[in-house]
Amino acid sequence: MRKHLWRGGITVVLVLLVTAVTAPAPAQAAKQTWPDIRMRLGALPNGIPAMVASVTGPLFVGDCEMRNARVELTKADAAGRSVVIWTSDELRTHHTSNYDVWWQSFRFKTAFGTVVGGMAPLPGPKMYDAHEPYSVEQKTSIAIDPEIWPLIKRVEWTGEC
Q1: What CA–CA distance (Å, rounded) separates 88 from 138?
Q2: What is the tally of structural domains in the chain?
Q3: Is 11 exposed, middle or buried (0-12, 13-18, 19+ CB in 10 A)?
Q4: Bridge-partner residues for 100, per DSSP?
Q5: What's this model's pTM, rounded to 2 decimal places?
Q6: Containing domain of residue 47, as a range?
Q7: Of 79, 140, 134, nearest to 108 (Cα)?
Q8: What is the torsional sign of CA 48, 53, 57, 61?
């Protein structure tokens, strides 16, 4: 009986070892930060004031590319709520085994570089087809002190793909 248990233990160890060696590793996202993109006072189409930064591109991260991108940070209301809007009409992957996703995050800064707000990454679309353009519009709410909002002059733009 002991002999059979011992053989079974070796079989399980070998199966686990072979599985660990042959299983595909998870994809690693590349990451790039553009630390000092200038923001200007603008407005949304509905007239709401917003700090705006635009990048015509291209920005490259790993196998991915983004062009014609924009981030808008709406004026903070009295409760300190502001909306971040990220848009791009040209996201691409140049190579993928399954699909790629461009993840975008922002940190908002004063002219002196003091960070006054930021957010977790927003996902772009799943890009299944290489070299095809994809578009994105994502929104999220963040807290910004209404007294500090007018002092925002720069954005740290971080992409992962």
Answers
A1: 9
A2: 1
A3: exposed
A4: 127
A5: 0.80
A6: 27-160
A7: 140
A8: negative
